[in-house]
Amino acid sequence: MRFTLALHSDDGVHYGVTVPDLPGCYSAGDTLDDAIQQAREAIDAHCELLAEEGADLPPAQALALHQADPTLSGAVWAVVDVPVDRYLGPAEKINITVPGRVLARIDAHAKRQGESRSGFMVRAAQQAMRSS
């Protein structure tokens, strides 16, 4: 799963990290590379805690939305992949029927977003369930 990082530094060397899509998830590092690695570990631990509490992972927001947040102004931005699937439960294969034209649109949209078909459909379902 991809996570956006907002990195801040007062001295250009040491960085504090905020993970805007995971409220309460923060980290830091002595270098930019170290800060990013520490953020990956913090994300993993945060997602593990959410799973233990039976909570859902919050949905990822667009980078532009985070960049517009005045509390994150001046951040250096990074996006990292962190494998958190193990906290979502085992994957299950399902068989669904989807009209061909709709499936083609789903695939094209998912590809533009850098997602798989399954990833897109899970995210869309989660969004639909949150808004109802």
Notes on the protein architecture:
This protein has 132 residues and is an alpha+beta fold. The protein folds into two domains: 1-90, Double Stranded RNA Binding Domain (2-Layer Sandwich), CATH 3.30.160; 92-132, Arc Repressor Mutant (Orthogonal Bundle). The chain has four helices and four strands; from the N terminus they run E-E-E-H-H-E-H-H. It has helices at 32-52, 63-67, 100-113, 117-130; strands spanning 2-8, 15-18, 26-29, 76-81. Helix 3 (100-113) packs across helix 4 (117-130). 15% of the residues are buried.
Q: Averaging pLDDT over every residue, what do you get?
A: 92
Radius of gyration: 17 Å
Q: How would you characterize the largest beta sheet?
A: 4 strands, antiparallel
Query: Which runs of at least 5 residues are low in confidence (pLDDT < 50)?
Result: none
For the largest beta sheet, what order do the strands appear in spatially? 3-2-1-4
How many separate domains make up the residues? 2
- Write down the overall geometry: globular
- Structural class of the secondary elements? alpha+beta
Helical content (DSSP H or I, runs of 4+) = 40-55%
How many H/I helical runs?
A: 4
Distance between the termini: 24 Å
Number of E strands: 4
Main CATH class of the largest domain: Alpha Beta
And the CATH topology of the largest domain? Double Stranded RNA Binding Domain
SS strand fraction: 15-25%
Question: In the CATH hierarchy, what is the architecture of the largest domain at level 2?
Answer: 2-Layer Sandwich
Taken in chain order, the helices and strands follow as EEEHHEHH
